[in-house]
Amino acid sequence: MEQSRVKELELLATRARLLGLKAVHDCASGHIGGSLSAMDILTVLYFETLKVDPKDSKNPGRDRFVLSKGHCTPALYPVLALRGFFPVEDLKLFRSIEGHLSGHAEMRHVNGVDMSTGSLGQGLSAAVGMAVAGKLDRKDYRVYALMGDGEIQEGQIWEAAMAAAKYKLDNLCGIVDLNGLQIDGATADVMPTEPLDKKWESFGWHVIKADGHDVSAVAAAFEEAKTVRGKPTVILAKTVKGKGVSFMENNAGWHGKAPNDEQYEIAKAELEARLKELEG
Amino acid sequence: MGEVIATRAAYGKALVKFGETVPELIVMDADLAGATMTNGFAKAFPERFLDMGIAEADMMGVAAGLAACGKKVFATSFAMFAAGRAWEQVRNSICYPRLGVKVVGSHGGLSVGEDGATHQCIEDFAIMRAIPGMTVICPCDGYEMEQAVKALINYDGPAYMRLGRLAVETVTDSVEGYRFELGKGVTLLDGSDVTIIAVGMMVQEALKAAGLLKADGISARVIDMHTIKPLDEALVLAAARETGAVVTSEEANVIGGLGSAVCELLSARCPVPVIRHGVNDQFGRSGKAPLVLQAYGLTAEVIAEKAREAVELKGRQAGSLGAL
User: Fold this and answer.
1) Which of residues 76-105 of B touch A (CB under 8 A)?
2) Residue A155 maps to which CATH number?
3) Which of A206, A262, B197, B253 makes a 20 to 30 Å CA pair with A191?
């Protein structure tokens, strides 16, 4: 990827981080930690990889994305807004009784959302269904599903993993946001999931490891996945929970907490400095 | 006497029949295709049959994804696992986004027989009914089943349908002008003293009970309430007003199912005596199905007893009102 494009994507991701942070701060609730860890992945998906059109968001031939870690709407909604699926101003209605932007991803009310999620462990199954439908209809769209590394403790993920291999879903690409933390602490302590590469491989998946904050590497991983035949791909994306805000980074406490006014100003200043640096 | 056929068998036949003309029809199963009788569809349309293995939670999620891409999906397993095991997937992945998945639970109720309590789902009506926007149906015979499958194919939203294991007599084919419509009960027999509102294989028992009551000089109306939700309120209200006493009958726990739905309506709109006949909040047990049904009182004789009680209650209420 050209350096100028890398910079563009990083700029977009930083803007999305600012919007997500503001949305969570404004309504004083929401899951900022895992949203910040997933932001670069989502930015690459919506601005580089997915074949989608905000003006034709229900096109049957479009690529599909399932936010299996459905609580990370402070990442998904800003990226959708920046991509043009709805006005950025709508983000002020996040989690508000007056708005339509519910806390967890919702397909019936939010333009651009392909599947309602929120209850962990269910999104990969829905993505499998979409990929099977694509095969049945002989359409060439691709389906992407983003999972959390805590989320994959749910048994249903592994049921879906078996099904995806059975149906040889090479049009399906899973991503695991490996930030290493979940609500109760380190994933390695709460319920160890490693070795994930061996687990997914043994379930019949092609495995790619990538730095989940390196937009060029993430984009390359999605391109590699497109070339795989006869099996699904999973990208194990190493990330930092709270990425981009120094005091939130690698701190499980920021899983589902909103910053207070003072914390918000500090976080905002850090991200704006990053923005300036990228624009500079 | 009508054809004797299990509703699961009629379901399997109907899927094959409509599979010919409905290319979007997808049938899923969770390693029970021989028992739920989706195997006929599997043979006829192998590409559109998905055996998801013993993984009901995943099956419901995959069904949701298929429906989100325009497929008409019948996700089938035993009632215990389709409604029970995968309840939260049905709620969150199917019902909340209002996706067109038909959750089909075979082997509902105690008539599973020998397999015993772990497989005798008596809670499906209650737990499926509790989900906002969910349609809940249980056809009583093979004739009704075929029409129900057709109606579900043409219905856009989520629905739960229970199938039975036992072969049962077909009774709806001889009803003049019978037409299956979701949310509309069918009056099988008119009567003026009491109404028996039944669902599933209790419909046949209710008809027998009406015969027993006739010998006692009690005129019983029998309603086949194949749709538990949305309830046919007009039909229930008219029956309550016109007969003044109601018995509900279902092969399910008396908590939360058809009986509860009828009581919820009548308590506010037309409070007449209602006796709920069904499984009295107990687990089932192993045995030959007819013997299990008998042991739990799921018979025409017990329905008739309940109807006599309801008529007596009505009389007592009329008496106490008269004394006021």
Assistant:
1) 88-89, 92-93, 96-98
2) 3.40.50.970
3) A206
Provide the CA A229 distance to its chain's centre, in angstroms.
24
**Which is it for the CA torsion B26, B27, B29, B34, positive or negative?**
negative
Report B:209-228 residues touching A (Cβ under 8 A).
none
Total tally of structural domains belonging to chain A: 1
B69–A159: do the CB atoms touch at under 8 Å? Answer: no
Is A217 part of the contact surface with chain B (CB cutoff 8 Å)? no
Cα torsion A187, A209, A229, A39: sign = positive
| Cβ separation A122–B61 shorter than 8 A | yes
Q: Helices A73-83 and A33-44: crossing angle, nearest 10°?
A: 30
Residue A134: list chain B partners with CB under 8 A: 69
pLDDT per residue over A199-214, tens digit each? 999 999 999 999 999 9
Residue with tokens 């039909």: B235
For residue B168, what are the β-bridge partners?
B5
* B112 in Cβ contact with B165 (< 8 Å): yes
Per the listing, tokens 């009056």 go with B187
Burial of A116 (0-12, 13-18, 19+ CB in 10 A): buried
Q: Which of these is catalytic: B24, B47, B56, B312? A: B56
Domain boundaries, chain B: 4-169, 183-323
Q: Where would I find the H helices in A152-260?
A: 155-166, 187-190, 196-202, 215-227
Q: Is B196 in a helix, a strand, or coil? A: strand
Q: Which fold has domain B183-323?
A: Rossmann fold (3.40.50)
Is B4-169's fold the same as B183-323's?
Answer: yes
Q: Could you tell me which residues are beta bridge partners of residue A148? A: A177
> With an 8 Å Cβ cutoff, are B97 and A163 in contact?
no
The question of whether B56 is a catalytic residue gets the answer yes
Q: Do A133 and B88 touch (CB under 8 A)?
A: no
Q: Which residue has the tokens 């700029």?
A: A11
Q: What parts of chain A have a pLDDT lower than 70?
A: none
Q: Which two tokens stand for residue B282?
A: 């107990």
CA-based nearest distance B69→chain A, Å: 6
Task: Give the residue from B283, B321, B315 showing the smallest Cα distance to B110.
Answer: B283
| B45 interfacial to chain A (CB closer than 8 Å) | no
Q: What pLDDT shows up at residue B323? A: 55
Beta-ladder partners of B125: none
CB burial of B197-209 (b: ≥16 within 10 Å; e: otherwise) equals bbbbbbbbbbbbb
Distance CA A170, CA A264 (A): 42
Per-residue pLDDT of A18-76, as tens digits, reads 999 999 999 999 999 999 999 999 999 999 999 999 999 999 999 999 999 999 999 99
Instruction: Find chain A residues with C-beta within 8 A of B53's C-beta.
Output: 159, 162-163, 166
CATH fourth-level superfamily of B4-169: Thiamin diphosphate (ThDP)-binding fold, Pyr/PP domains (3.40.50.970)
Residues 111-170 of A with CB under 8 A from B: 114-116, 118-119, 121-134, 136-137, 155-156, 159-160, 162-163, 166-167
